[in-house]
Amino acid sequence: MTILEALLMGVIQGVAEFLPISSSGHLAIFENILKINTDTGILYDVMLHVGTLIAILVAFRKDIARLILEFCRIVYDIIQNAKTMVHNKKEGDARRYKKIISNNYRKMILLIIVSTIPTGVIGLLMKEVVTAAAATLLAPGIGLMVTGVLLLVVDYFKAGQKIPKDVSYWHALAIGACQGLATFPGVSRSGTTIVACLLCGFNRKFAVKYSFLMSIPAVLGAAILEFKDIPGLDIGWEMMLTYIGGTVIAGIVGYICIKTMLIMVQKKKFRYFSIYCFFMGIVAIVCHFAL
After folding, report:
1. pLDDT in tens, 96-132
2. Which terminus in the chain has less CB density within 10 A, N or C?
3. Closest Cα partner for 11 from 33, 28, 27?
4. pTM passes above 0.70
């Protein structure tokens, strides 16, 4: 892989990860059409996702800092409640317990945990299927057509008003399952999860925020599973610098696209992304049979 190919893939990842047009689908399409060899299999794709993960951490740094703080407070309150329970049983007392889920950030932590469970299970079950599908143009083409349908439908739904305190754990479970299914090439992760959130009645701004925040444990988990194989890979310094260059570009472009999505979702413009997905899906399918 040349430095220009790495930078191109970085731009594609940064744009397609956060705009609802499927980064996995576009990476698969361009790798197949341009015959780009990443030399280390899925490693470079994972590094690109790490770049966009950093973009999420920067874009939502205040929310993430608050989530971490509230998580620590949850652990502290659970310990205190355990002490209270022991005291009450021992002394026959009736001290009050601390309320664990006392604000929206604490509720969001539990929602993200619940969403991550089906994502991880489905992701592991589909791993081999996804790898095989990404080697063709037909699968990403079909996936993009599916994404196009989802984006077209959601623009005609009335916006909901739900914020974390109004969301059920069943909704979180369903949205997590959608994220797991979106590992299939061409099916947009952000598009699918945002659509799922909106169909569950989420406030539009919260839908985008939740979609991106819930991707953090999923991307971290995938990165850990893949990076454990790095010691066995023969990667020179030149190749590693090329990979890092693409990762940095993915992060910068991704940050810009996150800010763009926060604006776009308020204006109900998903139908334009839908048209683009239909177009790219047709191109991929045609190329599959023509090349």
Report:
1. 999 999 999 999 999 999 999 999 999 889 888 888 8
2. C
3. 27
4. yes
